[in-house]
Design brief:
The chain has about 300 residues and is an alpha/beta fold. The chain has helices spanning about 10-25, 25-35, 35-50, 65-85, 110-125, 140-145, 190-195, 210-220, 230-240, 250-255, 290-310, and strands spanning about 55-60, 60-65, 100-105, 130-135, 150-155, 165-180, 200, 225-230, 245-250, 260-265, 275-280. Pfam families: HTH_1, LysR_substrate.
C-alpha cells in the first residue's frame, strides 16, 4: 500500500469537492467559492489525480458524481464539519454550561485562607463544575502543572522561566502569635518576651532555622525552636494551651480559626514581607477558560484580603 504524501495534500480540495457535490457544476461551484472557473477546473483535476477516480462526469449541463464520489461525500462532509465546528471554532467559555473540573494548586497558607471563598465564587457562576485543590510548594509547583495537570497556582512563588507568567495579588507581612490566656505580653511584643518562649515554626522545607535566627544573632540573642511543621493548622493546634510562640503571616493570624484566645502582634525584629502570586502557563494565556478562571480568582482573592484586613 502506497503511503500518501500528506504535505502535498491541500485541504481546500475537500471544500472544492463539497461545492461540486452541492452544485453539480464547475461554474456554479466556482461562483460559490469566489474563484475563477479555470481555478475550479484545475482543482478538480488535482482531486481526480489524488483520489484516482474521475469523481464527476459531464452529462449535458451537469456534473454527475461517480460511485466513489457518492461514497466519499458523507465522510468528507463530516471532516469539514469537524474542522469548522471543532478545530477552527471561536474559543469561547460559558461558565454556567461548564461541566468539567477546575484544578487549582495552592500552598498550605493560600488554601487555608482562600479555598472557601474560591469555591463559593466558582459554584455561583459555574454550578455544574467540579473543583479540585492540590497542595503545592516552591519545590514542586512547576512539575505539578503538567502532572496533575493544574489550571493555575496560588502561592508565594515567582517563576522566572518563560514557560510561566504571574500576577502579584497582594503583599503579606508577618506577626507573632501566642496563647493570650497563658501569657499576657503587651503588644507590640518586646524582644525579651519574644525570646522567652520556645518557638514553633511553619517550615515548608522542614528547616529549623530561618532568617529570623540571623536577625536575632545580629542582636546578640538566640531563640529556642521547639517544633516545626509544614502545615499552618498543625501549628495553630500546637499554639493553644502551650508555652509556644510563632511567627505567621498576618492574614493567617486574623482567620476565625485562629481567634480562640490566640493573640498576635508585630514582631520585635524585621521578619520581612512576601508577595502572593497567581501563576499560569504561558501556553494557555489565550485560552478563554483559563482567562475566565484567572480573572475570577483575582477578584475573589482581592475581596477576601480586604475583608480579612478590615475585620482584623
Amino acid at each position: 500500500m502506497n503511503e500518501i504524501n500528506w504535505k502535498a495534500v491541500d485541504l481546500n480540495l475537500l471544500v472544492v469537492f463539497s461545492a461540486l457535490m452541492d452544485t453539480r457544476s464547475v461554474s456554479l461551484a466556482a461562483n460559490k467559492l469566489f474563484v475563477g472557473q479555470s481555478a475550479m477546473s484545475h482543482s478538480l483535476a488535482r482531486l481526480r489525480e489524488l483520489l484516482n477516480d474521475p469523481l464527476f462526469e459531464r452529462q449535458g449541463h451537469k456534473m454527475i458524481p461517480t460511485a466513489k464520489a457518492n461514497q466519499l461525500y458523507p465522510m468528507i462532509t463530516q471532516v469539514l464539519q469537524t474542522i469548522s465546528g471543532d478545530i477552527l471554532k471561536v474559543d469561547t467559555f460559558e461558565a454556567n454550561e461548564f461541566t468539567g473540573t477546575f484544578k487549582i494548586g495552592m500552598t498550605d497558607y493560600a488554601e487555608l485562607l482562600f479555598a472557601a471563598d474560591i469555591f463559593d465564587a466558582i459554584h455561583q457562576l459555574a454550578p455544574n463544575a467540579q473543583l479540585c485543590f492540590t497542595t503545592v510548594d516552591k519545590a514542586n509547583y512547576q512539575d505539578r502543572f503538567d502532572s496533575e495537570p493544574l489550571d493555575l497556582v496560588i502561592g508565594s512563588m515567582k517563576p522566572e522561566q518563560k514557560e510561566f507568567q504571574y500576577q502579584t495579588l497582594y503583599r503579606e507581612k508577618h506577626v507573632c502569635m501566642w496563647d493570650g490566656m497563658r501569657h499576657q505580653f503587651k503588644a507590640p511584643i518586646s524582644l525579651a518576651d519574644y525570646i522567652s518562649l520556645p518557638h514553633a515554626l511553619v517550615s515548608p522545607d522542614g528547616a529549623l532555622k530561618t532568617g529570623v535566627d540571623k536577625e536575632l544573632k545580629a542582636l546578640g540573642v538566640n531563640r529556642a525552636v521547639s517544633v516545626a511543621s509544614k502545615h499552618f493548622l498543625t501549628i495553630r493546634h500546637l499554639m493553644k494551651k502551650r508555652d509556644l510562640i510563632c511567627v505567621v503571616p498576618e492574614l493567617m493570624a486574623q482567620l476565625d480559626l485562629f481567634s480562640e484566645k490566640l493573640v498576635h502582634s508585630e514582631p520585635p525584629i524585621n521578619v520581612g514581607e512576601f508577595d502572593i502570586q497567581l501563576i499560569w502557563q504561558t501556553r494557555n494565556k489565550e485560552n478563554k477558560r483559563y482567562q475566565w478562571l484567572k480573572e475570577l480568582l483575582i477578584q475573589t482573592i482581592e475581596k477576601s484580603v480586604i475583608a480579612y484586613r478590615t475585620e482584623g
